[in-house]
Amino acid sequence: MDFVIDSPPPELRQLYHASMVDRMKDKVDKSVFWSKLVGIVMQQGQKDMVNFFDLLLSPASKVLNNWFEGEVLKATLATDAVIGTMAGVNTPGSGYVLLHHIMGETGGQRGVWAYVQGGMGSVSSAISKAALEAGVQIVTNAEVSQIMVDETTGKVQGVGLADGTELHSSVVLSNATPYKTFVDLVPANILPEEFLCAIKTADYSSATTKINVAVDRLPQFNCCKGINPEGGPEHMGTIHIGSESMEEIDLAYKEATGGVSSTRPVIEMTIPSVLDKTISPPGQHVINLFVQYTPYKLSEGSWQDSTVRKSFAERCFSLIDDYAPGFSSSVIGYDMLTPPDLEREFGLTGGNIFHGAMGLDSLFLMRPAKGWSDYRTPVKGLYLCGSGAHPGGGVMGAPGRNAASVVLDDLKTR
């Protein structure tokens, strides 16, 4: 699996603009990829490969029912199959989403998550530090309003900023969503109609809301004996609230498909300040709530209505009270990001944290669109390097690294 994730897909597109030598090299590279993949498949054996494809194609409910008996355990694992998606545990292909979330590693340990000291912004800071040391110039607070393209040659020319500044370059990498990149930033009438249609009709739906909460004390859970005001093991991992069976998760999903935010939300809680004392004042804590399901467009009301927002946040806090009495009274303040907020604040089309659905029809050679999975785009010199490209979302950097390797290869042949 690592090999597939860490490699640019062997795109089937014909390189009409390339020289004969480049085309021969391209064919050799594709042959090497498929030969290596076939070798890996042969090593696994037929039974293991059938089980693997069963995992990819099946709904998460089938996979979990095959392996586990306890309803609470199955529901806890099932949240990884639906997190960030507008899908349910019975949705075909949700088994892959489950695999996608648990196949990562931290510190050499498979399936393990970790907190970043100083918050997730520390990851960006570390990347920027390395870039600056390598001589990169970084410009912030510089909104890109357009990707400039020569209409005659179809080649990228750089980017235009919202303040009118033009930055010229023969290579542009976009970490924005495919929709933002090709529909909002690339000028009209530049892209092939078939490609543009695929980008526009891709699934960007989301049912995820993020609530960042400041509290004056740690929640104390009914299921844990004793009180740990300084934090115990129960505060250090992912805490699952409200989903005690897969049926409950499925019901919450079905409500959202009708435009109704879940009556009993599915909540994943983390408390990073238990381990990282740099992100909160002494005696106080930061709690992150990853909540589903909240449809982008409500059948009644609007997320712009402060009353609707407050009502849903209090619904989540009240649910947590059932497991940790007094949680609501510990809340000092909170910031809530619904799907429309995620779209507006971070440019995530539809509020989808993966830059597009992670269904089987949107992966590998199909991501972001059939014929354009190798980070190159119909605009020569423009590359896609974010989660909307293979292998999709997650804190792993694989799309960016793979895209960078493709760019470097292309620069060598110019």
Automatic annotation (TrEMBL):
SUPFAM superfamilies: FAD/NAD(P)-binding domain. It comes from the Eukaryota. InterPro entries: FAD/NAD-bd_sf. Belongs to the carotenoid/retinoid oxidoreductase family. PANTHER family: PHYTOENE DEHYDROGENASE, PYRIDINE NUCLEOTIDE-DISULFIDE OXIDOREDUCTASE DOMAIN-CONTAINING PROTEIN 2. This is Amine oxidase domain-containing protein.
